[in-house]
């Protein structure tokens, strides 16, 4: 009877020892798995932090590059205020994004001043990247051609010859004789410039041709006017007239004419801010939807002998 009892006891003790050892192994394995999970989680956090830091650096670098590009654009364009003899020229550009696709340049030549206001189709970086090239083409052709329609035609041909994707742009280019006030101009698909006479009469300057970049052999015509004392010329991009209020109404040509007429006796700089203020008041809280550029050229009634050059 003792032998079977001992065998049974031995079996029970072996089973209990096995269970005890198994429990110990499971207990030892659980902290290991937990440590591995924590280690993997920490690795993921470190990886995400590293990637986020890299993205932040890329953002800062991109922001810096855009800022530098905007400064280059600003230097390519005319100073905000210029004076040639009795002509005062004031201009301003507002970008809907960081880099505008509009530009305004003034280049003095041996027989006058060439003024150019351009608007590259699109907005932001896509349009702004073309500004440098288009301004370069303008300067190149201004040095070779004497009349506006030839300058515009030459720029158009160069754009159309580009083998890859090419920009479309509108352009108003004028050559001003600062001695006589004679103004030769050419408009390539651009909104008409407004000439407000000293007696209150309005003229729309529309002679020219197609947008730049449409047809290689497009023909361009020249228009001619003369700026008399106290006359004012207003050149603008379509962002001015297409600015909308909260009801979706556009500022339009008639409001622009009315605002120009109301500020007729002021300086070019004062007229500039009067018009821009009217557009801003009209749009109120509605944000810009397109770049806005405005240039005002006014001939004084009396010549100031001190201010006879660029200011």
What does this structure look like?
It is a single chain. This protein is of the alpha+beta class and 311 residues long. The chain has two domains: 1-76; 83-299, PPM-type phosphatase domain (Phosphatase 2c, domain 1, 4-Layer Sandwich). The protein has six helices and twelve strands. The strands form two sheets. A six-stranded antiparallel beta sheet has the order 1-2-12-11-7-8. Strands 3, 4, 5, 6, 9 and 10 form a six-stranded mixed beta sheet that branches. Strand 5 (169-176) and strand 6 form a beta hairpin. Helix 1 (2-76) runs parallel beside helix 2 (125-144). Residues 1-10 and 12-24 have low confidence and may be disordered.
The CATH topology name of the largest domain reads Phosphatase 2c, domain 1
- Following the backbone from N to C, one meets helices and strands in this order, namely HEEEEHHEEEEEEEHHHE
- Number of H- or I-type helical stretches: 6
Largest sheet features:
6 strands, antiparallel
Alpha-carbon distance between the two ends? 125 Å
**Mind telling me which CATH architecture of the largest domain this is?**
4-Layer Sandwich
State the share of residues found in helices, binned by percent. 40-55%
Shape: elongated
What structural class should be given to the helix and strand makeup?
alpha+beta
Count of strand segments:
12
Compute the number of structural domains.
Answer: 2
**Parts with pLDDT < 50 across at least 5 consecutive residues:** 1-10, 12-24
